[in-house]
Amino acid sequence: CLRFKLRPDFFWSFCCIIAVVYLHAYSIGAAEAKRPSVPEIEQRLVEVDEILKKDPHNFKALEIKVASLQLLGRLDEGMQVCQEAMSIRADSSYLWFFKGYCQYKKEKWKDALCSFEAARKLGDVEGLQFSATCLLRMKRYDDCVEFTNKAIQDHPEMATLYLNRGLARKYLKQSRQMVCEDLKKAADLSPQSYASYSKHCIEVGAK
Predict the structure, then answer these.
(1) pLDDT in tens, 172-195
(2) 93 contacts 124 by C-beta, under 8 angstroms
(3) Low-confidence ranges of the chain (pLDDT < 70)
(4) If DSSP codes are grouped into helix, strand and coil, which group holds residue 170?
């Protein structure tokens, strides 16, 4: 627990921020609607910094600071705070997710995959989508299909899993029907995936 007096909604806001971070990281529409405003996030940072001045090793405050910096797009700063927090405790699924996300943004696919796996072992599920993309980017297409087959069994609602499996199947030259079924499913779950479905299935079929 934080040792200093905070507004009653502080912990609730922290949970909200973590949820929004996960949603926003994959640009899901609901995230934008619920995302705190920049002034609200910056106010959280002010509050957290005051706590950390008195208690530099307050783990929960460090986690909140990382989440806030991620929402502000200040990933390099967030990574520094993340490393500091993980030197105190390395059992936060969120911090492993954040570390993986930073590595992912820098196209360090192998490192990101390891971080997302660490997050998964601690209970995170959102990193599954990024893990599948990492495997695809590393051209480990067979591994990508195997990974997404398993992940989809538990999380059939994740559009990116179908998207990555469909693209991996395409590169493996598997049947066009299987490829397009996956890409269509991804498009049905997330409109952002429609471009891939259109490019590889509709436009190709029209030629």
Answers:
(1) 999 999 999 999 999 999 988 899
(2) yes
(3) 1-35, 204-207
(4) helix
Please tell me the distance from the alpha carbon of residue 70 to that of residue 72, in angstroms, as a whole number. Answer: 5
Query: Residue 112's closest CA among 193, 25, 14?
Result: 25
Per-residue CA distances from 205 to 134, 176, 197, 202 (Å): 28, 10, 11, 5
Say whether pTM exceeds 0.90. no
List b or e across 170-188, with b for residues whose CB sees 16 or more CB atoms inside 10 angstroms: beeebeeeebbbbbbbbbe
- Three-point CA angle 136, 142, 147, nearest 5°: 75
pLDDT of amino acid 16 = 54
* 134's tokens: 């990492």
User: What span, in angstroms and rounded, lies between the C-alpha atoms of 15 and 20?
Assistant: 9
200, 182 Cβ separation under 8 angstroms: no
Rg over CA atoms, the chain? 19
Instruction: Give the Cα separation of 163 and 143 in Å (integer).
Output: 15
Best CA proximity match to 162, nearest among 147, 142, 172, 174: 147
147: left (phi over 0), alpha (psi -120 to 50) or beta: alpha
Give the distance, in angstroms, between the CA of residue 179 and the centroid of all CA atoms in the same chain: 24
Q: Is-contact 16 34, C-beta < 8 A?
A: yes
Q: Both tokens of residue 81? A: 């705070």
**Pairwise CA distance, residues 32 & 89, whole Å:** 31
